[in-house]
Each structure stands twice: as C-alpha cells, then as structure tokens.
Amino acid sequence: MKSLSQQYRIGAIAKFAGVPVTTLRVWEARHQAFRPIKTAGQHRLYGEEDLLRATLLKQLSDQGYAISTIASLDIAALNDLMHKQSGQSSGLAKLASNRNVSLAIVGLALAGQVESKAFSAHLQNIHLVTTGVYQSLEMVRQTPPNTAPDIFLLKINTLHEIVVHEILQAARAMRASKIVVLYNYGREQVVRSMRDYRMMVRREPLSDYELAELINSVLVVDASQELSETTTSVTIPARKYSDYVLKKISGISTNVLCECPRHVAEIIAQLASFEQYSQECLNKSAEDAHLHAYLSSVSGSARALFEQALEKVASHEGIDLNAQE
C-alpha cells in the first residue's frame, strides 16, 4: 500500500520530470509505467516512486531507449541503466568540463528533484552522476554503492540524535566525501551537532536554485572566477585538523626561522572558521545564497591547500602530526 505522506497530482509529476501530462498518461495507459491510487473523488494521486520513475524514464528515453522496453523496469534497474549510460559518457563529459560530481541520495522525491530538467538548469557547468537512490538509511547500510560518492544527499523528516548516528554510519559505509542533509523538523542542538560533524544542514522547503547552491558550496572552485563560469571542481575534503591540534602545532618550537608551522596552523584555523561562518550564513537564509556558497567553497579550497602545506612543513621539520591528536 502506498504511503499518503508524499503524493502528487499528475501535473506536478509532469513539471518535475519535464514530461507533458499527455505523454505521462500514454506511458501509464499503454505501458503501465505508473500505478497511482484513486481518491474518493476519483482523482489520481502519484507517489514519490512514481515521481522518480517519471524522471528516470524521461532521461533514458532522451538517450535513445524505447519506452516500451524500460517502462516495466523497477527503480533499481532504471538506475543501473542510468549508471551504465553515465559511465559511457563520463569520459567525454570530463574532457568537456572536468566537473563530474557523484551523488548518493536518500529520498525518492529528492532524487526526482535532483534528476529533473528544472534542477539541472541551475548546474550548467556541473555533470551530476547518481551512484545510488535509496528509500531509507537502512537500505544504504545494506547495499552501499560500489563507487564512493562525492556527496551524500539526504532528505530526513525529523532530526534526532539516533538519526545523526545512522547518517554517520551510512556515510562511512559508502565512504562519502561530503554530507548534505535536508530536514523538516529538528532541535537546534541536534542541528549544531551535525554541523560539528561537518554536515551541511538545511531546513526544507528548498527551491531548485537553493539546493543547487548547497551543492555548489561543497565544491572546490577557482577563486579567480565566479561559480557561473567554466571552472574545474571537485568536492572539498573534510577538515583534517581540529582547533586543538592546530593550537598544539602552533606551540611547537622548530628550526624554521620564519616559524612556518605556527603561521600555517593559524591560517588554517582562520580559514576553517570563515568556512564554517559562510556555511552557517548559507544554512540560515536563502538571501545572498550564491555569494555565501562561493565564499564557503573558496575558503574550504584554501583551507584544504594549506592543510597540504602544513603536512609538507611538518615532514620537513620532523613533526608527527598524528601525535598531536
């Protein structure tokens, strides 16, 4: 039996998937692509799985698949076809833009939004590759994607301490680089703890533009150019060294006359602070979202580069960074 929590009229499905209503009705009547429920007033209502199916069917049909051959496939099979198609074209995409970003998604409606034509319009310079779509965190732990995703994107209705633990477990199972969580309800204390774990957390609802800016904010960009320009990008590595470790490094006496370990450690701490500040600004309000996403990605990129510099300086000076934990 389908859940009544998330249901849509056919017009909403058409808008999300970028498929005319008449085409969806043909897919349903002729190929049994969807199985809507009927209300007492005989109105058809479609669920989250129907939304994702419509989006995947549209993308696959655009790539040359006959709807008659794919309409009966389940979500997992449709995703497999998408992954194969993405794998065949990833080489060309990488040469063209060098901006491939992989996603694992929890939430069928969220996956439908991300894979829709309307959302893609806000990510013109980024090629998104979905490595897995899951209905729950438990499914992620049971069958993690074969390839570690750059971004683990989740829709969670209610946040609490147990869910945070489950998110971290799932992220470790799939070896995700970054975690982005969208939620409806949650105590501020829980949200703060999630940000301490370097998760990007935003309260729903989010427009396509706002969600696109969240994804932009966890990408390394060339600081000399705007996000809208053609730049190379990969996910920003998570922070390596805590403020406590950086403070200990700053106090170590070395043979370097310019006190490089101390200066580099202080720069990292300042960049990490500003990175967190920019993310919080982005989390709190949609106003100036593009600017805060840009500032967050630039400061995160710089912080990651200086962490590499710190490791080189430490190696030169014989400092064991692991011993400072």
From TrEMBL:
Protein's UniProt keywords contain DNA-binding: yes
UniProt cross-references to PROSITE patterns, sorted A to Z: HTH_MERR_2
Molecular function in Gene Ontology: DNA binding; DNA-binding transcription factor activity
SUPFAM superfamilies: Putative DNA-binding domain (SSF46955)
SMART domains the record matches: HTH_MERR
Keywords of this entry: DNA-binding, Repressor, Transcription, Transcription regulation
InterPro entries named among the record's database cross-references: DNA-bd_dom_put_sf, MerR-type_HTH_dom, MerR_fam
HTH merR-type domain residues: 7-76
Protein's UniProt name: MerR family transcriptional regulator
Species the sequence originates in: Zwartia hollandica
Species lineage: Bacteria, Pseudomonadati, Pseudomonadota, Betaproteobacteria, Burkholderiales
